[in-house]
Specification:
This protein is of the alpha+beta class. It has eight helices and 14 strands. The protein has a domain of about 90 residues: Cupredoxins -  blue copper proteins (Immunoglobulin-like, Sandwich). The radius of gyration is 27 Å and the shape is elongated.
């Protein structure tokens, strides 16, 4: 038998560990460290509600302890006082929580209205599409289609139309906003506005299959001028494949013969719509659902065996030789 004291100590230890995991503001996905307009609105609701809930929690638990101590059986033949109902008490503990919830409800509706406010004509429109297991970002006004990293300017509302290509996903950059589900066949709506430049981490927050845990995302917030530069880099005309030579030219033809072109778009060269658009691949810092840093070493490992690097990945192992991979990487390097 494990003694009662040991069990209590173990429980206390576990709770302390759990609580410690929530602390600190240096954690990249800490929802209690809001950095965006929407996240701050949510935080302004959550913090007071949490204080009230904490107070109720303490009160209820103190009362339980008090009642347990006061009315405990003191001897074997003692029968506690028998009571049946107490109208005053019962009314009290029905009305008090109802009143507290009503107040919280009013503030919740206010916050909902704030975060669902019409973003206005100045907003940047982005379509965010969840795929198993990566995020696609489309900027209809700029004509950009990219993946993994959502680039936005600071100080401007970003109006997001949220969709899903296959199953339900959930878009969640905790420091910028709450999570919103991406559901096949419908369009959900959310807004995001970063107040400081920086990289904000997030991830899919709705279990969506084998590599759900590897469906990461990044929101990169730029000063407006830097954002414009990013837009220019991602709208320059794509490489003219006919001008390539050597390994890059071999890679370009392998891109078609090995079937890459049936799953990936490279503007003007390949029109597959299944995987991420690769037209400006080199503008990204990460790939495969922001799981890997984009560099030659990681790309080589990826092309050797995608499901080996990312369990369940829907890009198959194409059994490429090392030489073919070298050529393909030379070609991918031209996708600036
Ligand atoms: Cu997902």
């Amino acid at each position: 038998m494990i003694s009662r004291k040991t069990r209590l100590a173990a429980l206390a230890g576990a709770i302390t560990l759990l609580a410690a995991a929530c602390g600190g503001t240096d954690q990249p996905q800490n929802t209690f460290d809001p950095q965006g307009v929407e996240a701050r609105e949510l935080d302004n609701l959550i913090t007071p509600v949490f204080v009230v809930a904490g107070f109720v929690f303490l009160l209820v638990n103190l009362l339980i302890v008090y009642v347990v101590m006061k009315y405990r059986r003191r001897s074997d033949d003692e029968i506690p006082k028998q009571v049946h109902g107490n109208a005053k008490l019962e009314l009290g503990w029905t009305i008090a929580p109802a009143a507290i919830l009503a107040v919280i409800g009013v503030f919740t509706l206010g916050t909902l209205a704030e975060i669902h406010a019409d973003p206005g004509p100045e907003a940047l429109e982005v379509e965010v599409i969840g795929h198993q297991w990566w995020w696609e970002y489309r900027y209809p006004d700029q004509g950009i289609v990219t993946a993994n990293e959502l680039h936005i300017p600071v100080g401007r509302t970003v109006s997001i139309d949220l969709k899903a290509a296959d199953v339900v996903h959930s878009f969640w950059p905790p420091k910028l906003s709450g999570k919103v589900d991406a559901i096949p066949g419908r369009t959900n709506f959310m807004t995001v506005e970063a107040t400081e430049p920086g990289i904000y981490y997030g991830q899919c927050a709705e279990f969506c299959g084998f590599s759900h845990a590897n469906m990461l995302l990044r929101v990169v917030a730029h000063e407006p001028a830097d954002f414009d530069a990013w837009v220019r880099a991602n709208t320059t005309p794509p490489v003219d494949t006919t001008t390539l030579t050597g390994d890059a030219a071999d890679g370009a033809s392998l891109f078609r013969t090995k079937g890459c072109a049936s799953c990936h778009v490279v503007e003007g060269y390949a029109a597959g719509e299944f995987g991420p658009n690769l037209t400006h691949l080199q503008q990204r810092e990460t790939f495969a659902g922001a799981m890997f840093e984009l560099n030659e070493r990681n790309l080589r490992r990826w092309l050797r065996d995608p499901p080996g690097e990312k369990p369940g990945s829907l890009m198959p192992d194409l059994e490429l030789t090392e030489d073919e991979i070298t050529s393909l990487i030379a070609y991918l390097n031209t996708l600036q």
